[in-house]
Automatic annotation (TrEMBL):
GO molecular-function term, one example from the UniProt record: RNA binding
Record's protein name: ANTAR domain-containing protein
Domain ANTAR residue range list: 127-188
GO process terms (BP): phosphorelay signal transduction system
Highest taxon listed in the record's lineage: Bacteria
Residue ranges constituting the Response regulatory domain according to the UniProt record: 7-121
Organism: Methylobacterium planeticum
């Protein structure tokens, strides 16, 4: 994605600070900058705008703002870069927990904006990839448990060995052009219903 194709939403109640951010973004070649002057209905506004990155600048973040930014980061699935004038370790930890991709204290200078956005995007993408991989791993583990349970049911009901039970699951899946986990789920559901 090139800078000229980026859309950046800038959230800042101060017009002067928003202008600095906008100027820095435009100087960095960002194609579209949209200023959002307050945080009312933020998720809806960000979802409608669909920016590539959300930049917020505050004097000092509050828990309410961090909760809103957490929702934006996770539900709207957008990287968030936060610039603050003052902070403490508790707020920094809360920002990390909220999924803020870049948290910069007292660092709003025009020449720093572009590198900070770049790192926010990279960190967000890396985190999203890790979340996908974790979700896939959990799904695979759940499927394995389901298959093991289905094999146990087949072994018990039909008197099969573990290997034979697995071969039956696999054969049924191939014949029906379905996943083994789907066949296993059907067996487990049926066994649960029949009690």
């Amino acid at each position: 994605m090139t800078e000229s194709s980026l859309t950046v939403a800038v959230i800042d109640p101060s017009r002067a600070r928003a202008a600095i951010l906008e100027e820095g973004l435009r100087a960095a070649g960002v194609g579209r900058v949209v200023i959002i002057p307050d945080t009312a209905d933020l998720l809806e506004r960000v979802s409608a705008l669909k920016p590539d990155v959300v930049v917020i600048h505050l004097e000092s973040p509050s828990r309410d703002i961090l909760e809103q930014m957490s929702v934006v980061s996770r539900q709207a699935e957008r990287p968030v870069a936060m610039f603050v004038d003052r902070s403490d370790s508790t707020m920094m930890q809360a920002a990390v927990d909220a999924g803020i991709s870049a948290y910069v204290v007292d660092g709003l200078r025009q020449e720093r904006i572009k590198p900070i956005l770049d790192i926010a995007i990279l960190r967000f993408n890396a985190f999203a990839r890790l979340q996908r991989e974790l979700s896939e791993a959990r799904g695979e583990l759940a499927d394995r448990k389901l298959i093991e349970r289905a094999k146990g049911i087949l072994m018990s009901i039909k008197g099969l060995s573990e290997d034979e039970a697995y071969k039956q699951l696999r054969r049924k899946a191939m014949n029906e052009k379905r996943k083994i986990a789907d066949i296993a789920r059907a067996i487990v559901t049926t066994a649960d219903l029949l009690g």
